[in-house]
Known about the structure:
The chain is of the alpha/beta class. It is 41% helix and 14% strand.
Amino acid sequence: MSKFAVEHVKRVHSVVHDRMGADRIGSGNRITRSWIRCLNEYQLNPDSCAEPEVVAPVELQERQERLADVQAVAKVEMANLYQQLAGSGYAIMLTDREGVLLNYFGDPAFTHAASKTGLMQGAVWSERVQGTNGMGTCLVERRPLTVHQDEHYLSRNIGLSCAAAPIFDHEGELVGVLDASGESRLAQQHTLALVSMSVQMIENRVFLHQFRHDFILRFHNRPEFVGTLSEGAIALSVTGTVLAASRAALSLLGYTHPGEIVGRDVCELFNLTFSGLVDSSVRRAYHPVPIFEVRTNARFFAVVYQPVATIGARRSTRADSALTPPASALDALHLGDPTMRANIETAKRVMERNVAIVLLGETGSGKERFARAMHLSGSRAARPFVAINCASIPESLVESELFGYRAGAFTGASKEGQRGKLLQANGGTLFLDEIGDMPVALQARLLRVLEEREVIPLGGEAPVKLDIRLISATHCDLEKKIESGEFREDLYYRLQGVTFTLPPLRERHDRTALIRQLALEESDAGCPVELDDSLLALLERQRWPGNLRQLRHLLRTMIALRESDRLTVHDLPPEYRRNLADVDSAAQAPAAEPAMAPPSAAAPVAAAASAAIPAGARPAAGLNAFECAEREVLLQELKRHQWNLSGVARDLNISRNTLYRKLQRLNIEHPDKSLFH
């Protein structure tokens, strides 16, 4: 036995017998507790050289079959995790609840040495057999942990560094452990974070698969996190009874065990009925809707997904009485416009193929809405949908946001590193909005990623394999940007597999139906708001320069300030009501005599708007009623923020580039500065 092994055995006995060595180990009581168990309960000798215990092939196969659902999902996540740690000498392992190693992804540089310590399929890594180790001790402690080198109990294992996290099923039962083990000399906390994230993904995907034939409520307290690994998921019966809940769901709601909510009606948890939840999800094209938790009144955002086996068919549920759900999120976007119908039919044909997609359309025309519907309608619906606005991120941060970085990659970098958007979207969909505003230097890196289907984080050396569906969107004319040298031609042709042009709101033939749908989406769940005919007619006739975004913001304001659940012209904000009246009067005025020049339709609009806007900030002629109203509201926001453009853009949820374009289009100038450019 080596001198180092002898010292290790002495230290183990010292810690166990006098319990004075906990501080010297550097990992707290969990290691001490484990060493005490190993010596006193299991009667293991720290310097044992016994051969690794391995189960028979038949038993291994039986154990693998018992965890078939978990294994099918875990293999994908293990491969992803292995790629992230490739080159660092780690092996990725999955054990069952008794510590038997079921699957193994090994770094070639580590495989041979690992087999000597028993890191192989069928090997038993319970604490009782292998002493203190990542997999076995994690099974006992039931929480993520690291066991680094001489924290292992057996001296033969002190060359290993292990990071392990437990996997639980929907009943809260421990089913196995995911572990990353290597010969690193440094305890890598970021490795434990990556393992824990992979476990969360495994649990979520297994849950969604096991309850795919039931209704599933997916929620989070931030709408952009619905559909990501941090979301909560609750399985519901056809009557709205809770069947099961994921660990994340329990954590978000403040419960500790599934038994606390299983069997209860969903309306006992949230402030609306099951049918209201289902109808709201359908009306909003499966976009998250706000709901409130009954006990604390905490706000969440949620979507209810239909059972997979019966999607598109009529269901015998309490939600049936309102309407038959559309077959998919894409179908929910079809309200009668022929251009949208053609877009949807084409999208269905290409969304499962490796075809690049570009969405063209004016700002606010619903490009992200369409991209998300494609994601939710395909086989990647349970995987992440990650959206990034290339125009809203400072150029200096775009690269790290997209590609991520390793710990210490640059000054100010997080100690744990960061997974970029590309890796966050791995297995799912990445939506790059405003792709035309991506810096040219970064376009070259994106092109290489698309060609090679792998990414190297900043400061990293080993490439990570990538499986994403990429959807790009822009309001720009990319061909003109190519001519001016602002966009790479080779990237343009790589992105342009199928191009969809989304019509602006003023050109859509389904405006009336769309206005009604957005009003329903903005209504409180289970309490729809109606629009009277006169209001609907006025809204339908407008040009809507801000498209769906402008319409949605107007409806949201009207619904928030309403006095009843039936909206009329009188519910319009004052500036809209005044300008609409001017436009309506101009439209109904008698025709001028032939000998006279026809009056300008913009004149009464401009006059009304001019009277409402302070001197020194008057709009130029030619703005229509809604543009004048939009200009006035924007001026008020600018004054409220003391002309801080970053603050205004943040409050309006738009990029600074978009805000600059609005200022130019609406002829807004700072009182002490020239027109914005």
